[in-house]
Amino acid sequence: MYTFLNNTFLPATDAAISVNDLAIQRGYGIFDFLKTVGGVPIFPDDHLDRFFNSADRMRLPVGKSREELSAIITELQRLNAIPDSGIRITLTGGVSTDSVSIGHPSLVITLHPMAPAGKDCPPPVRLISHPHQRQLPDIKTIDYLMAIHLQPYIRDRGAFDVLYHTDGAITECPRCNFFLVTAEGTLATPARNILKGITRKHLLALAADSGIPVEERDVHINELAAAREAFVTSTSRHIIPVSHVDDFRVGTAHPAAAGPVARQLNQLLHDLVMRQTLIAATDR
Fold first, then answer.
1. What are φ and ψ of residue 128, in 5° steps?
2. What percent of the chain stands above pLDDT 70?
3. Residue 143 to residue 154: CA distance in whole angstroms
4. DSSP reduced 3-state for 83
5. Rounded to whole angstroms, how far apart are CA atoms 127 and 14?
6. Is 4 helix (H, G, I), strand (E, B) or coil?
């Protein structure tokens, strides 16, 4: 498996950064994650927009243009020859002279096999709630301290992931955005203090185009009692239905199957991704 490190393609087992890098010393750095399906990067412009925005907000010089990053990703795909993959672009804080000042960042791009999301939703999952607000939530940083700290608790409760909230206002999961369908049939999702995911962006557009009422607003955990459905979204798995939060069954959700809105939107997302791959194949 090949990795890109700064200006070199090399075997992943040979890639290394300095122990004095701020990514190691202070957990300072950013990343973005996109997938390829049939060799085609999905929503690459959206991911690069977010990557460069994160870099700017964290005062990290990327050292490569968008076109150069795209060319690196294309070459990494060629070297690894894995058409269905996950690609992670990481930018570190660099080696610091005083352990707090930003140095010259390292650019690391890795690739690993990843099965495409299906047209059918996976089985519903349980989330556990936890009061927490991430630092600089609009930036995709490498800081997942709370998410990893809570892993034993998540596993002990038989949960899929943790759902963060602040004073009862739901924000997000560490790797997913959260949605619920209200009793009136409106699709609601938190609007503040979150990382706005790429799948979230396209799902909101698809929902609006399909005539589903959409609200980006504060969503309170108490709303789950009357919700018709709840689900989370991510790049890797599109839509994952939620059957329970803690020990509470979510509204009218069936614990063994996705609700109708989740199924409809997952199909639309799947079709959108397939159209991208078809268009790219036609242009080759």
1. -115, 140
2. 97
3. 18
4. coil
5. 38
6. strand
